[in-house]
Amino acid sequence: MSRKLGLLALLLALALVAAACGDDDATTTTAAGSTTTGAALTGSIDISGSSTVEPISAGVAELFNAMYPGVAIKVEGPGTGDGAQLFCSGQIDIGDASRAYKDSEKELCAQNGIEFVELVVAIDGLSVLTSTQNDAFACLASADLYALMGMESIGFDNWSDANALAAEIGAPNAPYPDADLVITAPGEESGTYDTFVEFAIADFAEERGQDDALRPDYVASPNDNVIIEGIAGTPTSLGFVGYSFYLANQDRVKALAVDGGDGCVAPTAETIADGTYPYSRLLYIYVNKASAARPEVAAYVDLYLSEQGLGVVDRTGYIRLADYAPTLEAWQNR
């Protein structure tokens, strides 16, 4: 699973810190000490991309509008991939992303003359979920998830349909029960989809000569709340979303521990922050440098990286970085 080592090393360097409280006046102070005063601002800011990052950006937008009501902000969450297409074609100012932009997306930006700043803003734990009614499992390994959700599982509509494949690849939690297998998860436009494929599917697919993708015959949605509804509404369901959406719905869905090769680890703030949860990942915003020259966009990003803005990370259930110095340096050196 070598493709994950770089991310794990970075996550271990970005461990959880305690939330800090910000004030509510109209002056924003970033962690680096720069300030944005409450002078009147006008204009607009367009933000689109990851539905995982959307709650953070929307929460910061709410704070910002209370300080600068003359600025119109639009925040949408169609998915990281869709947001990257908009961003790299110059249609939006900020792209939210639950994964780093792909080389192909960066090339599109270059072709269109879009220069950007990549800012890591939080840590998330991609959470594998089932219904609270499902007591068959408390933990699934990556091999189990491949057997149930990889391309070789096309047509499996019962958990037990995957037993032969699971035995072949050594999935540790097989045999699976005779129960309906209903999968609800993000679609291909989602960075969460891409990250899940990287974590749970890609290595097995490569070893077995298969496409590194999810089986296409599942219920896909770009809306995390719709995914939660689907998982909660089927007793023997399976799916995945970002940790924040699990936290907000843990009375209706159950997070499964994940065995990435070192034993079962449940997603918690602590395990996500220190990287022991194997599906921990970084969250990003991409800022168009030309847009950043506008005072309203600069002020919004300043607020995002201030103590007030980082309080939104805490409230939405994601995890702060221990050290925002690289993020602040990237922003200041834009």
Protein model, in words:
This protein is of the alpha/beta class and 334 residues long. The chain has helices spanning 5-13, 54-67, 80-88, 103-111, 142-149, 163-169, 191-207, 224-232, 243-248, 269-274, 289-292, 295-304, 307-315, 325-332; strands at residues 28-29, 35-36, 43-49, 71-76, 94-97, 116-125, 127-131, 139-141, 182-185, 219-220, 237-241, 253-255, 257-259, 264-265, 280-288.
Produce a short descriptive summary.
With 334 residues, the chain is of the alpha/beta class.
By DSSP (H or I, 4+ residues per run), the number of helices equals 14
Percent strand equals: 15-25%
Average residue-wise pLDDT? 91
Gyration radius, in Å:
20 Å
What is the share of helical residues?
25-40%
End-to-end separation: 34 Å
Work out the number of β strands. Answer: 15
* Largest sheet report: 5 strands, mixed
Q: What strand order characterises the main sheet? A: 4-3-5-15-6
Low-confidence stretches: 5-10, 12-37
What structural class results from the helix and strand content? alpha/beta
Task: Give the SSE map.
Blueprint: H1 5-13, E1 28-29, E2 35-36, E3 43-49, H2 54-67, E4 71-76, H3 80-88, E5 94-97, H4 103-111, E6 116-125, E7 127-131, E8 139-141, H5 142-149, H6 163-169, E9 182-185, H7 191-207, E10 219-220, H8 224-232, E11 237-241, H9 243-248, E12 253-255, E13 257-259, E14 264-265, H10 269-274, E15 280-288, H11 289-292, H12 295-304, H13 307-315, H14 325-332
Parallel strand pairs: 3-4, 3-5, 8-13, 9-10, 9-11
Antiparallel strand pairs: 1-2, 5-15, 6-15, 7-11, 7-12, 13-14
Helix pairs in contact: 2-13, 3-4, 5-6, 5-7
